[in-house]
Amino acid sequence: MLALLLARKGVRVTLLEMHRDFDREFRGDTIHPSVMEILDQIGLVEKLHEIPHTKVSGPTLQFANGTIRPFDLGRLKTKFGYILLVPQAKFLEFITGEGAKYSSFKLVMHANVNGLVEQGGVVCGVHYADDDGTHEVQAQLVVGADGRFSQMRRLARLETVKTSPPMDVLWFRLPKLAGDPAITGGAFGGIGRGRMLVMLERTNYWQSGLVFPKGQYQKLHAQGVAAIRQEISEIDPRFAKNAEALTDWQQLSLLSVESSRCPLWHKPGLLLIGDAAHVMSPVGGVGINYAIQDAVVAANVLTEPLKAGDVTNGHLAEVQGQREWATKLIQSFQSFLQNRLIATVLLSEQVGTVPWQLRLMTKIPVIRDLPPRMIGFGPKRVRLEQV
Ligand SMILES: Cc1cc2nc3c(=O)[nH]c(=O)nc-3n(C[C@H](O)[C@H](O)[C@H](O)COP(=O)(O)OP(=O)(O)OC[C@H]3O[C@@H](n4cnc5c(N)ncnc54)[C@H](O)[C@@H]3O)c2cc1C
Questions:
Q1: What is the pLDDT of residue 349?
Q2: What is the residue-averaged pLDDT of the chain?
Q3: By the 8 A CB rule, do 86 and 30 touch?
Q4: Which residues line the pocket of ligand 1, CB cutoff 6 A?
Q5: Under DSSP, is residue 23 helix (H, G, I), strand (E, B) or coil?
Q6: Which of 147, 168, 249 is nearest to 212 (CA)?
């Protein structure tokens, strides 16, 4: 996204991607209202909606004594009061395809960055390897947008501070079947047995997740896939038939939930953004949203200095300064929900009825409107300053 935004403004960008394509392991498919507003600013939002998608405006949580909708993005003051679910591979192909329309944009696939070029303590490029050997790219600025296991972060010796949220998630696909329940808001959470079953409606399947307390993965794995089918049918018997499609542990992918943040996102000539700078817990599915907001702020701050060839450490600190507080705030908010609601209420063996905390959240307007705002936009609406 940053590569696209800079290339649009005539800044020469080389985007190095280690994989041969974008179609690989599941990493979430959620495009939030803030991202759609930004794509609207640059005239791409209609095209985005041409990719086959579904929409989620908020989950319906099912308890023994009824259902509750803890938040509704439809209440937001925006044209896009929903999360758009599009396969991440398609989204990235779309964004890089738009980038390729600019002569200043160059994408090199299967380019594994494995070293920094440094001169006098300043990063001035990278080395990458592909089938033809090792190559060097010289650059005024290197941006590490290389995800939670960031090689750039390691090479630049920038540290992270980690916290360990109290749950993990197993993600898998279930088939849609005739007679499946209609899910209000496009997302459903069934609570029971110390687990939470998440069902997100996709175009031709259910994207499903089983949330469980951290530390239980080995036990679940030892019990095997039959026990997962059993869990699903006991939490919500309406999906028992769908669960029969799970026959092999390979169909499940573990999201080891982590939350972390780098105290310093930059050094001379290098900036980290997205998961490389901060890994988000999956509560609210905000990782992609926050990564893209970092890219937009980086474009706002850095486009002119890049064009003038005078990017300073002060500019890089400015990007971190504009984004760090928002990251800290959402991580605290996620931590609050995880510890107060998810761990002690939703993943508790005893839970059966709608907890009072959730009822309260939906009754008091100022509290009711906070989760959709935080999830849809974060603490501050990020906009592209120069369209
Ligand atoms: C299982 C799972 C489910 C998730 N679900 C959601 C969700 O529903 N909603 C949500 O918002 N977030 C979700 N997330 C988080 C989300 O994927 C990230 O927050 C988001 O993708 C971060 O974007 P990014 O660009 O910083 O990093 P990434 O999307 O991780 O992109 C990093 C890119 O860098 C490339 N790369 C890495 N190393 C190198 C290298 N050495 N050389 C060249 N290229 C390299 C990678 O191949 C990758 O394409 C999920 C994460 C996981 C693991």
A1: 67
A2: 92
A3: no
A4: 16-19, 26-28, 30, 111-113, 145-147, 151, 171, 253, 255, 274-276, 280, 282, 285-289, 291
A5: coil
A6: 168
